[in-house]
Amino acid sequence: MPPTALALGALLLAAAPPPPPAPGNPPSAGAAAARKPGAARCSASGLSSEPAPAQPPLPPLVESMRRRIVAAAVACDYVALAVLARENGSRFSFSTYSISSDDPAAFWRKRESYGEPVLARLVKVLQLPHAQREDRYIWPALSLHPAVTPEDVKVIGQLFPADELAAVLADPHASKDYQGTLLVILANGDWLEGERGRWSEYPWSKEKRP
């Protein structure tokens, strides 16, 4: 029998925070640049702009897009992210459950202004294990699970506030599969999708919208 939502929430709250970075590892050039006086600031400021190699390895075009998304997000460069989203055409999807826009840059900038760590989530999700379905590479892999597992909870806790995520999991009306940030990159390097689901909006940003 799968674990109850309340049990998942309790497990999440009990999970220990991730260990601090190992000493002797200097921040990447992109992260250092983001912290310079006068540099743009966003939720991804200070994160590493150089993601660890994906396991299993990705096709070169997919890995290139992954790294460029991370670098642009850490630099808080909304315009660069929008360019990447449209680099191979106009099929990119970035709407969430209740918000849509024709301008990815304005969409992400507005959500950051509401206090949502959208860019940080982009960076962190691309550090998680991925899944492959035909020509699509999907982050995180756990988004394909029919329901959130205890192991998934530990991973998702890196992306969403622990107490609020626990509340969502305990909500009998909330979906129990992963409804957070989702990224899809095609084998040809086309960034196809950059957001999905109600978890990106509920409950932590609901009161911050105009």
Automatic annotation (TrEMBL):
What are the boundaries of the region Disordered?
16-59
* Biased composition annotated in UniProt, kind: Low complexity: 27-40
Q: Where is the composition biased (Pro residues)?
A: 16-26
Q: Source organism's superkingdom?
A: Bacteria
What is the protein's given name? Uncharacterized protein
Q: Which organism is it from?
A: Archangium gephyra
Q: What is the lineage of its organism?
A: Bacteria, Pseudomonadati, Myxococcota, Myxococcia, Myxococcales
